[in-house]
Structure formats: C-alpha cells, structure tokens
Amino acid sequence: MSIDETTAARVAKLARIKVEPEALPGLATEFNTILGFIEQLNEVNVDGVEPMTSVTPMRLKRRQDVVTDGNQQAKVLSNAPDAREGFFAVPKVVE
C-alpha cells in the first residue's frame, strides 16, 4: 500500500493536525516508511508463540476477596465532630 499526498492530507485532517502543503510529501514518505515496517512485521512467523503482557513472566499477587469493614472504625470516627454508637451523628434535617 502506498500513501500519496492527498491521503496524507486526509489523515492529517482526521487527526486534527495542521500540516502545511509543502510538508505533505515528507509526511507521505514517513507514512510509507511506517507501513513498510508493519509489512515486515506481518512476515514474521508467530505460530505457537503465546501472547505476553510483559517482557518478564510474572503473576500478580492475589489476595482473598473477602468483604471486611476495614477494621478502622475508631480511627475514622475520631475525626467526626459528633459520633454515637459507632456512627456519625448529624443534625436532624427532616421534620
């Protein structure tokens, strides 16, 4: 596939990049170079190669998915101006 100046101008417009008309031939050449690299990658045989998410194989540390209250009730309520029976106490707003 080859990109001409018209296509390069359209890509620049779609990407909302202002490109001066005299820079379009260079941009088209760069696009063609990038497409050439992509075509080279398509020639690589990757049969039997597992996809990877990192260059070093590692597993994320996992913990048990258990619901807790955080065990910080006293610490949280210590910031409250008024706390009663383990809850924030607020003024009544509904009559």
Just name the CATH architecture of the domain at 5-41: Orthogonal Bundle
Global morphology: elongated
| Secondary-structure-derived class | mainly alpha
Please report the distance between the alpha carbons of the first and last residues. 74 Å
The overall pLDDT, averaged over residues, is 89
Parts with pLDDT < 50 across at least 5 consecutive residues: none
What is the N-to-C succession of helices and strands?
HHHEE
Largest sheet: 2 strands, antiparallel
Q: Tell me the name of the CATH class of the domain at 5-41.
A: Mainly Alpha
Per DSSP E runs of 2 or more residues, the count of β-strands stands at 2
Oligomer: single chain
Computed over alpha carbons, the radius of gyration is 30 Å
Number of helical segments with 4 or more residues:
3
What do we call the CATH topology of the domain at 5-41?
Histone, subunit A
Order of neighbouring strands in the sheet with most strands: 1-2
**Range of strand content:** under 5%
Helix residue percentage: 25-40%
